[in-house]
Design brief:
The chain is an all-alpha fold and 434 residues long. The protein has 20 helices and no strands. The radius of gyration is 44 Å and the shape is globular.
Length: 434
């Protein structure tokens, strides 16, 4: 026993001490001869085996038996947690994962389907929708009664209409210019040129856009419906002008600023030409300014493929031409303000617009496409400044009208007082004479 105990507590680093321990334990553990088996030895100094289990492992009688996992500190799985439940939970999780992946794939496929149509409408470039909306907003705000805000319902309708009809105009433009866009560096990745959308699908999409635009137009009065429908010819013909004349920007201005007439008729029932015509002309001049700057991005490609634009027409004299159109724009805005009895906030906004455009033209580099694009986008600020000036100027009309009425009342009261005194003096003179 002493010998066996010494073997059990001996170091377990070599196989010789292990087999000596086996030989000593044969008579103690069992009377049957046990042949030594080749096993893997682990040193006890690693403390992988608890000391309470050393005798069971070293004794050959326990070789081949499955040790109780509880002795190693391993917790057993409860009986209530069966393998069937585990598999079912795993199956449920995998089903949820597959469902989530399928939903993601469907969402990705859906987005990939509508993305080319969004690019066809230029949703990723909203500046065009703003430039189409601002003349409508000017006209609606200018037609508001003194001291009143512009009609929010009309602003909302024209905002939706500007967004939809600008997209329709882009679709028409891309259908006409498929052969041209493929030759221009900036436009060769458009959906119709790249084959992401078939021409027939684009026509069907255009019909849907025009349907939405017609629905918005039908919310207005009949005068406005007829006036708005008459602009559809300009929308269709404009893309062809770059093949015919060096003034396609003039046709674009006539199309984009139709809202200057339509906004007034939508709120008043008809067009006040003395106010709306100067506003419309100012918008056309403004469009020639910003779209000429925009056209300088494609000047080299336009020369190669034979496309005409005011950028090519003006050439090195672009800044001089743009200064002339800016002057004409400001003069017509002042005329429209005088007709509508606008107040000083309106004319202040015109001064800020003039300063903005002068700086824009002076700092313009027509040979730098990136600078041209930046200057073009900054025209959004011009539209906003004028709209803000019209709104504040119309609200300020109340104070000026009140002052005018009070001054008129004071003048009439003083004149009546003077007249009464004069009549009393005449009456007293007559009494003395009698």
């Amino acid at each position: 026993m002493i010998r066996s105990t010494s073997v059990w507590r001996a170091g377990f680093g070599s196989s010789s001490s292990l087999f000596q321990g086996w030989a000593s334990c044969i008579n103690i553990c069992t009377s049957r001869p046990v042949h030594a088996k080749r096993t893997t030895c682990f040193p006890l100094n690693l403390k992988l085996i608890p000391q309470s289990m050393e005798r069971r492992i070293l004794c050959p009688a326990y070789i081949g038996r499955k040790p109780n996992p509880h002795n190693y500190g391993v917790q057993s799985i409860p009986n209530t947690f069966s393998m069937l439940n585990t598999r079912s939970i795993a199956s449920d999780n995998s089903h949820k994962t597959r469902s989530r992946r399928s939903e993601q794939n469907e969402t990705r496929t859906w987005l990939q389907t509508i993305y080319p149509y969004a690019r066809l409408m230029r949703i990723d470039r909203p500046i065009g929708s703003w430039l189409l909306f601002w003349p409508c907003g000017w006209s609606i705000a200018l037609s508001a009664p003194a001291g009143c805000w512009p009609d929010p319902m009309m602003l909302g309708l024209f905002g939706v209409g500007a967004f939809v009809m600008r997209g329709a105009g882009c679709t028409i433009n891309d259908l006409w210019d498929r052969d041209i866009d493929a030759k221009v560096e900036r436009t060769r990745n458009r959906p119709l040129v790249a084959g992401e959308i078939a021409p027939f699908d684009a026509v069907v999409f255009l019909a849907g856009q025009l349907g939405v635009g017609l629905f918005v137009l039908l919310q207005l009065n009949w005068y406005s419906i007829l006036l708005g429908a008459s602009s559809l010819g300009l929308v269709i013909v404009y893309p062809l002008m770059k093949r015919i004349t060096y003034w396609p920007q003039l046709m674009l201005g006539a199309t984009f600023n139709w809202g200057a007439l339509l906004g007034w008729s939508a709120t008043q029932g008809s067009v006040e030409w003395s106010a709306c015509l100067p506003l419309y002309v100012a918008g056309v001049c403004w469009t020639i300014v910003y779209d000429t700057i925009y056209a300088h991005q494609d000047r080299v490609d336009d020369l190669i493929i034979g496309i005409k634009s005011t950028a090519l027409r003006f050439g090195d004299n672009t800044k001089l031409w743009l200064s002339g159109f800016t002057t004409a724009m400001l003069a017509n805005l002042i005329t429209a303000g005088l007709v509508c009895d606008q107040t000083w906030p309106y004319y202040t906004s015109i001064g800020l617009i003039g300063a903005h455009l002068v700086h824009q033209i002076h700092s313009l580099n027509i040979n730098n496409p990136k600078d041209c694009a930046t200057k073009f986008i900054s025209n959004h600020q011009v539209g906003f400044l004028l709209f803000l000036g019209i709104v504040i100027g119309t609200l300020y009309k109340t104070n000026s009208d009140d002052r005018t009425k009070s001054a008129t009342t004071a003048t009439s009261s003083s004149s009546s007082t003077t007249g009464g005194q004069l009549s009393a003096a005449v009456t007293s003179t007559r009494n003395i004479a009698v």
